[in-house]
Here is the input.
Amino acid sequence: MEKIVQKEFELLFDRYPRLEVCRKDIKKAYELIVKIYDKNKKMLIAGNGGSAADSEHITGELMKRFKNTRPINKELADKLISIDKKRGERLIKNLEMPLRAVPLTSHIAITTAYMNDADATGVFAQQLLGYGDKGDVFLAISTSGNSENIINACVVAKALGIKIIGLTGEKESKLSETADICIRVPETETYKIQELHLPVYHALCLMLESKYFGENQ
Here is the structure.
């Protein structure tokens, strides 16, 4: 782990000592996500209620700058200029390199159509089938670890060759059994679990940004 990444990693436990019990799994989750991004794959994210909001939040941190600037590469910049010099110059100034992430909670038309026409508990599974590719990673967020629509999506993820990272509470659950890696924060009450999920995923986003864009600080 690079020094700048290690710094963000250790800062998490300095600020939230209770999360020390999750250290190994957070590190494993980071390493798995790096593997998929190194292969130009993507992260798919889903959860319910507050965890749906977390899915959107995580996507926002990954798809644009969090702390570091993320200038586009020269090859893309040259193509933009060759297509339209004036607009290209503005795009080069404002575009930021993403870490690809797709929140499965955002697509209202397909979500409501599938829930109405087929099966509400299969809503994330259907989207994984449509958006997912072998080698992607599915970040499955469930405070109980037993949300039926999340577990159904995990079944599809496994069938497609998509790795699963679970983010849940401390109790053993179907998600902790199913996921390749499961970060079980040390709380059992829903809102308290959610309060610890945020620093975990913020740390992961900071670590990833530091790895890929840290030199641009």
Observations:
- The domain at 3-67+99-216 is CATH 3.40.50.10490 (Rossmann fold).
- The radius of gyration is 18 Å.
- The mean pLDDT is 96.
